[in-house]
Specification:
The complex is a heterodimer of chains A (458) and B (415).
Chain A (H helix, E strand, L loop, with lengths): L4 H17 L4 H28 L28 H9 L69 E2 L22 H12 L2 H4 L3 H10 L1 E5 L5 E3 L7 E7 L2 E5 L14 E6 L4 E2 L13 E4 L3 E7 H25 L8 H10 L1 E5 L4 E3 L7 E7 L2 E4 L8 E3 L4 E2 L13 E4 L3 E7 H8 L2 H8 L9 H4 L5
Antiparallel strand pairs in A: 2-9, 3-8, 4-7, 4-9, 5-6, 5-8, 10-17, 11-16, 12-15, 12-17, 13-14, 13-16
Helix pairs in contact in A: 6-7, 7-8, 8-9
Chain B lengths: L1 H8 L10 H4 L24 H20 L5 H4 L8 E2 L8 E9 L3 E8 L10 E8 H6 L3 H14 L8 E6 L3 E6 L7 H8 L4 H21 L2 E2 L8 E3 L5 E3 L6 E2 L9 E2 L6 H5 L6 H16 L9 H10 L10 H10 L15 H5 L9 H5 L35 H11 L3
Parallel strand pairs in B: 1-5
Antiparallel strand pairs in B: 2-3, 3-4, 4-6, 5-6, 7-10, 8-9
Helix pairs in contact in B: 8-10, 10-12
The chains are: A alpha+beta (458), B alpha+beta (415).
The complex binds adenosine-5'-triphosphate.
GO molecular function (chain A): cAMP binding; cAMP-dependent protein kinase inhibitor activity; protein kinase A catalytic subunit binding
Keywords (chain A): cAMP, cAMP-binding, Nucleotide-binding, Phosphoprotein, Repeat
Family (chain A): Belongs to the cAMP-dependent kinase regulatory chain family.
Chain lengths: 458, 415
């Protein structure tokens, strides 16, 4: 005759716990153990009941992001999100719920409970409390259906990924983005066409020029051409140059055969509009079908080109910054890891010629590296510039150390780009500069002497 | 007992293996200088020495299960530890497939039992993750799968990361033998409970902090896919992080490939400006928010709208959320990485000393001396009640042709 498996299991678990905790009061320990187990088993039971009542949701299937409705162009208008409207109304609401107005404040009541009270049962040890009584199972009281944001997708979420990219310069590959000639008018229209898209609004001038240059003209000879089909994999983003397109969504999630296979028409796109921008992120199934309604012209951009342009310029800039930082004697003891953190934090700023970037006598707050252009250094009482800066030179680094007034003024003589970081930012990332200078070589502390390190004082 | 455990975890590297010329194959890191000869498909060899080796290996695997004990961070980094090794002798036939535990885009994870094992080892169960080489290649995930195997091998032994006991391969598939986490996904508990109360959230969040601290600061690894779906609960109620498909050793170089889960992507990933371990702290903030609120802070039907919200980075909190929790989440979900908690000075220790975690005894937590809020109630070690049902695998599979093998097996040789 053998013992029931349930029992053996519990005893094995108890044995483990005893070995681990080596309790002095064995009986009390066992009693606590079993009451915890009981509590957690009951809680779980209640949870599973709850679960079975909401079975329909199908925890095991994952439909996101494939089945997401599709939206984009300004002229499209088919994706006026219901939720957005709710969110706007809610803007001044004290409840300030995350994304849905239906989120009632009392649904959150459990968030404020103190540790040890009403949790998943056996939480006592965690809260450092000796209490161990069965309590109401976790958060069940808070689960009224109305309080739940109805629009949130409750399914398991699928991971996404784009093709892996390695910067060309890291593998000695010479890559230049494709360039397709455009008239000034076309260029301007394109620029306006993508202006509203957040993926483009963060680009710097150079990236922007490269991206616009890479857009390729795609003539659509006649009406009735499906440019993208719902459910298909997507690699291209499109901007409409001329003509018009209808947008259809089939509720099945996919373009089907037959006369109604397109599904419902949800909008149109005309000149200046755009569609398919999710393809610039990763390869996701298209959320709609787009069909030409007349002869048209599109501009197309593929994901790999787009992401590569962004990556190459980010990569080059980082390496350039790291290289500059290596030259800064005040920071010579930074580890490569720290240097890359600082490079990441450097902010790019541009100034027209004749701008005074720092002014003698002002309190110093930031440090600068000249990334492009030229600047001159002036001291009061001296007519001529006392120094000139070019690409890779740095100034104002003493501001990282102390608040001493600037020893000179620096004025741009051409368009300049600087990379800059404030003392606050530096300390936030790595702590005080003094500590960093001292850690390798205590005698470095003498380098705090301004004359030794500040090129302004040279 | 400690001695036994030690012997087991640091099992002589060459025992149970092929002759020494082959055994260096088990260390992926010193691969590069090796000859270009692919291994003579050891998994297809048949002889009695091989059978003995397999038997030994199965026993070692069972013993590991018997003793399982977390390693100290210092021990995990040892390169000659036995857990996480690449086995040249194990085969699929050494395991009886019991039930599917989960499916991913190209992998299926099975509950398995040791087959034809010694007396006393027969009831040992594991999770076996099986990946078809064809699918891995078709979905362009070769690099990710290699990263996954190598990272999982090097982190094996951490108390809150699923332990890859061994990996192996045959002609058309790759296998990772993992410890079975019978509690199922935190995701399922969270969806059923809608949201976790503060104490429950703190406990789980704290275990995650220890994982991230270890991955980032000891291993230089960015995990890149933190979400409740990838966090399992083990038999004792502790967390186990699974799915290292996007994990990558980044150290001090930034990386650019977009990957993750839409709601959890960090702004720098979306903008493609280069990213590093800081993305995990962002995702951690989203995770804590989702624990406490029941849904992530950035959400829309249309994924592009989610991304727009993320790069803007304005998190809105329900009024009932405690100010400590808000403060923590705001610190983590900061668009500017030079201001993001976890990435700034102090790294993970700055997160650990945040007020929201003031009740956590971090050392006791690491050593699993604190009881978790949910301890799965199980009928036995092979209980799968906490897992959903999955469709059976389809029979029609694209074969892994010899042409493909010739082209790709080189990439899988460390497996
Ligand atoms: N060690 C384990 N014990 C129990 N279940 C597991 C284990 N490992 C994985 N699973 C289950 O299998 C599921 C899929 O595993 P995993 O996420 O590793 O596969 P994947 O193919 O990489 O997934 P995805 O495509 O979602 O990234 C998990 O979500 C989990 O439910």
């Amino acid at each position: 005759m053998s013992l029931p498996p349930d029992y053996s299991n519990e005893i094995t678990a108890l044995n483990r716990e005893i070995l681990k905790h080596q309790p002095s009061d064995t009986l009390q320990f066992c009693a606590n153990f079993f009451s915890r187990r009981l509590e957690s088993q009951r809680a779980e039971f209640l949870l599973s009941q709850q679960h079975s009542s909401s079975q329909g949701r199908g925890l095991a299937e994952s439909t996101f992001p494939g089945s997401n409705p599709f939206s984009t162009s300004p002229s499209g208008g088919f994706a006026t999100s219901h939720m957005q409207r709710l969110e706007e109304e809610e803007e001044n609401d004290v409840v300030a719920s995350p994304t849905a107005a239906s989120f009632s404040p009392d649904a959150m009541d459990h968030a404020q409970s103190t540790p040890g009270e009403d949790t998943f049962g056996n939480f006592e040890n965690f809260a450092d409390s000796a209490k161990s009584f069965p309590r109401q199972p976790p958060g069940l009281g808070a689960m009224d259906a109305q309080s739940f944001p109805s629009n949130y997708n409750m399914n398991r979420r699928t991971s996404v990924s784009a093709e892996s990219l390695n910067p060309a310069s890291s593998i000695n590959d010479n890559w230049t983005p494709p360039y397709h000639q455009k008239t000034n008018d076309q260029q301007a229209r394109l620029k306006a066409g993508v202006a509203g898209n957040f993926l483009f609004s963060h680009l710097d001038d150079e990236q922007s020029t490269q991206v616009l240059g890479a857009l390729q003209e795609k003539p659509i000879p006649t009406k009735g051409i499906k440019v993208i089909a719902q459910g298909d994999v997507g690699d291209y983003f499109y901007v409409v140059e001329s003509g018009a397109f209808d947008i259809y969504v089939n509720p099945s999630g996919k373009l089907e055969a037959g006369p109604d296979g397109l599904g419902n028409k949800v909008g149109t796109v005309g000149p200046g509009g755009s569609f398919g921008e999710l393809a610039l992120m990763y390869n996701a199934p298209r959320a709609a079908t787009v069909v030409s309604t007349q002869q048209s012209t599109l501009w197309a951009l593929d994901r790999v080109t787009f992401r590569r342009i962004l990556m190459e310029s980010a990569f080059d800039r980082r390496r350039m910054y790291e290289g500059f930082l290596e030259e800064v004697s005040l920071l010579s003891s930074l580890t490569p890891y720290e240097r890359s953190k600082i490079a990441d934090a450097l902010e790019t700023k541009k100034y027209p010629p004749g701008t005074t970037i720092i002014r003698e006598g002002d309190a110093g707050e930031s440090f600068y590296i000249l990334e492009a252009g030229e600047a001159e250094v002036y001291k009061r009482g001296v007519d001529k510039p006392v120094n000139r800066y070019k690409k890779g030179d740095y100034f104002g680094e003493l501001a990282l150390l102390n608040d001493a007034p600037r020893a000179a003024s620096v004025t741009s003589t051409s368009d300049v780009i600087v990379a800059t970081l404030g003392k606050d930012g530096f300390q936030r990332l790595l702590g005080p500069v003094e500590g960093i200078m001292r850690r390798n070589d205590p005698s470095k502390a003498s380098a705090l002497d301004a004359d030794a390190v500040d090129p302004l004082a040279r | 007992m400690a001695a036994v455990v030690h012997k087991l975890l640091h099992h002589d590297h060459h025992a149970n293996r092929e002759p020494p010329s082959q055994s260096s194959q088990t260390e992926p890191s010193n691969q590069s200088g090796q000859s270009n000869q692919p291994p003579p498909s050891p998994h297809e060899r048949q002889d009695s020495a091989m059978d003995r080796a397999r038997d030994e290996e199965k026993h070692a695997v069972a013993q590991w299960d018997e003793q399982r004990q977390p390693l100290e961070p210092g021990q995990i980094e040892q390169d000659r530890k036995w857990v996480g090794h690449s086995s040249r002798v194990l085969r699929q036939e050494d395991f009886e497939l019991i039930k599917t535990l989960g499916t991913g885009t190209f992998a299926r994870v099975w509950l398995v039992r040791l087959a034809n094992a010694r007396e006393g080892d027969q009831h040992k169960v594991f999770a076996l993750k099986i990946l078809r080489k064809v699918d891995v290649i078709r979905l362009k995930q070769v690099e990710h799968v290699r990263n996954e195997r190598n990272v999982l091998g090097s982190v094996a032994g951490h108390p809150f990361i699923t332990t890859m006991v061994a990996s192996f391969q045959d002609h058309d598939s790759l296998y990772m033998l993992l410890d079975y986490c019978p509690g199922g996904e935190v995701f399922s508990y969270l969806r059923r409970a809608r949201r976790f109360n503060e104490a429950t959230s703190q406990f789980y969040a704290a275990e995650i902090v220890l994982i991230l601290e270890f991955l980032h600061e000891k291993m230089g690894v960015a995990y890149r896919d933190l979400k409740p779906e990838n966090i399992l609960i083990d038999a004792e109620g502790h967390l186990k992080l699974v799915d290292f498909g996007f994990a990558k050793k980044v150290e001090n170089r930034e990386t650019y490939t977009l990957c993750g889960t839409p709601e959890y992507l960090a702004p720098e990933v979306i903008r493609n400006t280069g990213h590093g371990t800081a993305v995990d702290w962002w995702a951690f903030g989203i995770l804590v928010y989702e624990f406490l609120v029941g849904q992530p802070p950035f959400w829309d039907q249309n994924p592009m709208k989610i991304y727009e919200q993320i790069v803007e980075g304005r998190v809105r909190f329900p009024s009932a959320m405690s100010s400590d929790a808000r403060n923590l989440i705001s610190g983590l979900c900061t668009v500017d990485t030079s201001k993001r908690l976890g990435n700034i000075k102090g790294g993970a220790s700055a997160v650990k000393s945040h007020a929201w975690f003031q009740h956590i005894d971090w050392d006791a937590l690491y050593h699993r001396r604190i009881n978790g809020p949910i301890v799965p109630h199980l009928r036995g070690p092979a209980d799968t009640r906490n897992f959903d049902e999955y469709e059976p695998e389809s029979d029609q599979r694209e074969p892994y042709s010899n042409d493909m093998a010739e082209k790709w097996d080189e990439f899988f040789r460390d497996f």
